[in-house]
């Protein structure tokens, strides 16, 4: 009888332990609700972003649940975390506890071999390959080409116009810059077709991943497949050019094809190059164009900042002979202009937030985040934190005169640590060159008194920011 009882007890003990552990784990999940299966809080968040109330939407969650809470976004159970410590947790855990997996919509549309998806050694390998072209020492050779692209754009779209709408024009300029300098795609039918498909890709990057014919997600997937076929053809052409002696640093794709590993084979697969090209198209197109658009808006509404930027840019222009182009040394002198850009990114970060995925059960802030759940962070939660940035609603570029004074993992417009955007310097160069050309050739006034903007998912000013243009008497050739 005793043996039977002992055997029965030993049999029940593991079951009791597992049940107790599950109940204990359930109690330790962050507060909040997962909502309706698949949809969860996705539609509510997307509506808030569209109305530019997403920051308030998350602030209400913090008031209700604290800085850690669970919800469901884009088909996955998710934990929202915020604050400087949360940012550090996100950007210092790579490949161990967390993977950099994005939402299903991003992953399906842009591919799963881009650096947003990769972790550990794969991320390091691909990122180092991208940085080999995007680092300042390499990009400084392309400042003149950047200016030529900007001047060409202004001549075609700004000169002779009394009124222009800034955001669509800046998106066109950013896409042209990416195509010319990074991918070596010349103006013409191929680029025009690429633009058409690209707009459809953008629409579905943040969407509920329901693959039905009438959905954004479905249209975006089809456009992505067509662009990937175009890029495969481009890779074949670039390989032929390299075999014929073309320079390996003529554009980013040629550079990536030229980098070899220890076995003398190409370091990156075609799939990795194509997926990262797609990512750079989306990230570079939206972030740079939005930053420049909001700088144009700021310069029209803040006379003090405008006068200081203008003075800095005119001093540089005065030092150039007629027709002489900008150099990297000129960009180095644009210190105040870049602090204005950084403050603009603090107040209106183009990237609202991002996702990570747990690779194992993770404990954070006293709660359990189960394996395979998403973690979502929001840049604005530290950018507008008064304990980090004094009087955060006040626009003050001097905050960035000494960037070492800003606490680590507080300003994350470009990410942080090993996850800092590899295209940071490219965006900086593009922004400074564009602002220089605009402020030395035009003055402008806002046509729309409504100063609000929405997010879709990037910030979009009312009506795309129409402005009234006045050319200066002497335009730079």
TrEMBL record:
This is Cytochrome P450. GO terms for molecular function: metal ion binding; oxidoreductase activity, acting on paired donors, with incorporation or reduction of molecular oxygen, reduced flavin or flavoprotein as one donor, and incorporation of one atom of oxygen. One of its GO terms (cellular component) is membrane. It is found in: Membrane. The lineage of its organism: Eukaryota, Viridiplantae, Streptophyta, Embryophyta, Tracheophyta. Gene3D superfamilies: Cytochrome P450 (1.10.630.10). It comes from Cinchona calisaya. Heme binds at residue 421. It is a single-pass membrane protein. The keyword NAD does not apply. Belongs to the cytochrome P450 family. Keywords: Heme, Iron, Membrane, Metal-binding, Monooxygenase, Oxidoreductase, Signal, Transmembrane, Transmembrane helix. Pfam families: p450. Its cofactor is heme. Residues 1-26 form the signal peptide. InterPro entries: Cyt_P450 (IPR001128), Cyt_P450_CS (IPR017972), Cyt_P450_E_grp-I (IPR002401), Cyt_P450_sf (IPR036396). It comes from the Eukaryota.
